[in-house]
Amino acid sequence: ELKIHQRTHTGEKSHHCFDCGKSYLRLKSLKVHQRTHTGEKPYSCDQCGKSFTTSSYLIIHQRTHTGEKPYSCTQCGKSFTQSSNLLSHQRTHTGEKSFSCNQCVKSFITSSELTVHQRTHTGEKPYCCDQCGKTYISSCHLTRHQRVHTGEKPFHCSDCGKRFSSSQNMKKHQKTHTGEKPYSCNQCGKSFTRPDSLKLHQRTHTGEKPYSCNQCGNSFSTSRDLTKHQRTHTGEKPYSCTQCGKSFSMSSYLTIHQRTHTGEKQYSCIAVV
Description:
Elements: H1 2-10, E1 15-16, E2 23-24, H2 27-38, E3 43-44, E4 51-52, H3 55-66, E5 71-72, E6 79-80, H4 83-94, E7 99-100, E8 107-108, H5 111-122, E9 127-128, E10 135-136, H6 139-150, E11 155-156, E12 163-164, H7 167-178, E13 183-184, E14 191-192, H8 195-206, E15 211-212, E16 219-220, H9 223-234, E17 239-240, E18 247-248, H10 251-262
Antiparallel strand pairs: 1-2, 3-4, 5-6, 7-8, 9-10, 11-12, 13-14, 15-16, 17-18
């Protein structure tokens, strides 16, 4: 233990990952890291079956079932499942952003946010989907992507019950109930629920198409449109029907197809005969 402690002063990290070259102070830390490459998740939740790479992640997850939030903010009383989340939250009161990127001087509230951001410079994507091989810069991006395969939609709107695969999409949807559109276009006055939606809209005025296909040179106003287009080259169809296995290039095509199984007819004629 003394030798391990002394390495915190010398900076020596003698345990190396053969896959990516990352180094660690402790062998235990290396073994946990290697699970990001192997996909091994030996700790399972006895309530929902979800698996995790470490026992501490399992304990944190189990609080989503129990509702336990043992870490409370002394300023506003908000409670959290993790101490790290509390520390991050407290910086919203102080305004402190102590983690700075040495490449673009952007600052972040947490070291983990900085680590993920730095991958936008290095191109590193250490989190790999075991179903389709797609890689991501963070575990939360991978988790969100995996819902494409599983169909899981864990976030639901408290107003109408509609379910979503990401909290971001749910929050966007909830504004359709409140009618709130705080972001306005200074050219035509159109209002939007989100700043990124306004930014996309403004390209209809400027004609800007910053996303180009490296195979045919076609340009697009959004990264999403570029991704859809690239599937015409690759033939990729990541959205699969759980009932018949048919695959589609877009989630909207899958949704339409699934109605052939459910018999749902969403659109009704309102004309009176």
